[in-house]
Amino acid sequence: MKLWGGRFETGPSEVFERFSGSLHFDKRLIEADIRGSQAFARALERVGILTADERQQLVEAFDALLAESREPAFYEGADDEDVHTLVIRKLKAKVAGLADKIHTGRSRNEQVSLDIRLWLRDQIDITRELLAALMQAMLKLARQYPDAVIPGYTHLRRAQAVLWPHYLLAYFEMFARDYERFTQARARVNVLPLGSGALAGSGFPFDREAIAKDLGFDSITRNSMDVSGDRDFALDFMYAASTAMMHLSRISEDWILYSSEEFRWLELGDGVTSGSSLMPQKKNPDSLELIRGKCGRVFGSFTSLFVTMKGLPMTYNRDMQEDKEPIFEAADQLAGSLEMMQVVVESATLRPEIPAAAAEDSWVVATDLAEALARNGTPFHKAHQIAGRLVLESVRAGKKPSDWTAEELVAFAPEFTAEMAKLFVPTEGMKTRVVPGGTSPKSVASALDQADVRLAQMLGK
Known about the structure:
Blueprint: H1 14-20, H2 23-26, H3 30-46, H4 52-69, H5 83-95, H6 108-144, E1 149-154, E2 157-163, H7 164-189, E3 191-192, H8 208-215, E4 219-220, H9 224-228, H10 232-258, E5 266-267, H11 286-309, H12 324-347, E6 349-350, H13 353-361, H14 366-375, H15 380-397, H16 406-412, H17 426-430, H18 441-458
Parallel strand pairs: 3-4
Antiparallel strand pairs: 1-2, 5-6
C-alpha cells in the first residue's frame, strides 16, 4: 500500500521502489512513529474526527503493534516504502478502514520531523548519561593519584609541570562542554512540529500546545514552511557528536603515546588491548585507536547531512530522506566510543614515578624561575632572557635542574637569590599557580570538589 497514488495511472517502477525505499534503515523510528500516531489520534478526537471509541481502538492497536515490533518476525517479508507505510499497513490489518482516518490533517513531512525529534530526544538523554559516566570515571582516576606530577606539553615538548588530576580535569571540562552542547541541542530538538501540515499548516484546528504537552515537548514550532525543510536540530546534534568525538580522539591520542614504551606512564588493562598475530611481545592500544578512527565516521556523517541541506529550496525535498542514516551512524559511533572510553579509563594505571622523573630531568621549571625573578623586580622580558640563558648553559653542560646549587645559581646571574633554588623542584613552582583553574595543589583540590558537585547536578543528584 501507499500513502499516496490517486493522481497516478501506474505505480512506481521496480528500480525506483528499490532506490527510494527507506524501511531498511528508518524502521528504527518505529517506536517514535507509533508514539506520535497515538498522540495524533488523541488530537483527532479533540477536533471531532474520531470518536472516543475510535480513538481507543487506534491507541490499543498501536500498543499491540509496538509490542509486536520488538520481534524480528514483525518485519519478515515487509517491502513497504518506509516505516510510516509499514505501520499503517499493519494498523489496517487490525482496525480495517478506521486506519484510514489516522492521517487526517497530517503530512508525512511533519510526521518524519516528529519521529526524528522523538528518537533524537531519547538518544541525547542516553548520550548525556554516557558522558556523565565517563566523567565520573575520570574523576575517580584523578583522585587515585592526587599528588602525581607530570610534564604538561606544548608542541609535544615538555613545557611546565602540572598535577595528574589537573590534566584529567582538562578533559573533564571538554566533556562537560559536550554535555552542555547536547543539552542545548535537546532544547532545539524538543519542539513539536505536528500541526504544520506539508508546508502551509494543517486545515484542522488542532490544539498544538495540547499535543506538545502530550508528547513531552517544551514548545511548538512557529512557522510551517520552516518545519517542512528544517534539519537544523539534527545538525545541532551531529555537531555536538562530532565535537565530543574530537575530544575522545584527542585523549585517545594522548594515551596511545603515554602507554607506549617511549613514555611508559600509563598501563592499559588487558581487557582493552590486543596482541599481534606475529609479534608475541605486543600489547596494542586497539580500543583507543578504534575510537580515534571512528571519529572520522562521525565527522563524515555530519558533513554528509550538512552538504545535503546546503542547496535545498523551500520546503521539503526528498533529498532529506538522506538525513537518517548519518544521524543513526553518528549516534551509534559516539555511544559506542563513550562506552569504550569509560572502560579504558577504569582499566588504566598510572606509573607516577616515570612522569615525575621526566618533569624533574627536564627544564619545565624555567617559567617558574623567570616568574620568580619578575616577582623580585626584574622586568619579565629580561627575566625570560636570564632563565633562557640558564637553560642553554645547562643543555651545553649536560646539567639537569637538580644539578645546580643555590650558590651556582646566584653566581650565574645576580638577579637570582639563593631562595630561588628551591624552584628547581617542579612541585615548588606549582604551588605559585593558585589562581582558579591553575595547577597548584590547592586549586586542583578545589576544582576536583567543584567537578564532583557539577557532575552530581548533571546526574540530578
